[in-house]
Specification:
Elements lengths: L8 E6 L5 E5 L3 E5 L20 E2 L10 E8 L3 E8 L5 E10 L2 E8 L6 E9 L2 E9 L2
Length: about 140
């Protein structure tokens, strides 16, 4: 059995030889109707996130590029904005409709001074903000 992601199963429910449901890490639910690959059925990664989340940027501190990873539960408008320490919006990284799944975006802060910055994900009613540090 090939599974497109690496995770531990917490429950497996075989309804028949071909119809199997499985639950695993990260609140993942996978399904097969042909006894083959377990898939989430709603995105190419085979996983449908249980909700929305914003990960800590990596690396942090960074110089001058960092990666921001996020998950969205459904097809929705996604906005990721960067703010300075005073709360002033300095750039918009993403402002577009995205499919469900895990996504990432890079921020190149070459044109900005060292300091503390904040990044905020907004999608539907979900909003989360995290802090990052640029060190030159």
């Amino acid at each position: 059995q090939y599974v497109p992601v690496e995770l531990n199963y917490t429950c497996v429910f075989p309804l028949s030889a071909s119809d199997v449901w499985a639950a695993g890490d990260y609140e993942t639910v996978l399904h097969t109707t042909d006894g083959g690959t377990l898939v989430g059925g709603l995105n190419n990664q085979g996983i449908l996130p249980a909700g929305f989340s914003l990960s800590q940027n990596f690396p942090n501190p960074f110089n001058p590029v960092t990666k921001i990873k996020y998950q969205i539960r459904n097809n929705s408008l996604v906005s990721i904005k960067i703010f300075d320490i005073l709360g002033k919006e300095i750039t918009v990284l993403i402002n577009e409709k995205k499919d469900p799944g895990t996504h990432e975006v890079n921020w190149d802060a070459s044109g900005y001074p060292s300091g503390i910055y904040f990044y905020r994900l907004e999608s539907g009613e979900f909003t989360e903000t995290k802090k990052m540090v640029l060190v030159k």
